[in-house]
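[User] At your convenience, examine this fold.
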Amino acid sequence: MDLAIVAKLALALKEHLDRYQKLVDFLSAEKKYLLNLDLDGLLVTSQAKEILGREIQNGIGALINNLSDAALMLGLPNSPSPTLVEVAKLCPKPYANQIIDMALTLTRLKNVILRENEANKRFTQESLALVNGSINALTGADQIKGDSYGQDGSKDQSVKKARPSKVSKEV
């Protein structure tokens, strides 16, 4: 058994986990910036997430190659692709435990990322609605133009058109 191949897999998996943890950190920062309507912070975080996304994609390829090499060395078929746990079961004890722990951590991080993304999506929509509402209140745009349609596609007759509201000079 070539332990160097297993060690290479463990290292690639560790690097992958580090990237996912970094993504969780970016998503947490993004939430803070969304709540504070900090556009500069959002821009910086967005750019960093884009770079990290490319690193994650490149890392996945390397991880899959290392997993395939380890599976081949351990005598597992490459089709269908073996899982980390299947490979870990055939590895020596210290590596087996390490790989299984990292596979569980990867699953946990994936779930955290999905939850954070969903929360940030809601915060983004709420922030956009707040900005849109503010602009419409200032310009009266929400009261002047267009027909409103219900979910079924029919015209919503309950929306009344009005003149733009005027802001007092004292405000």
In short: The chain has one domain: 3-138.
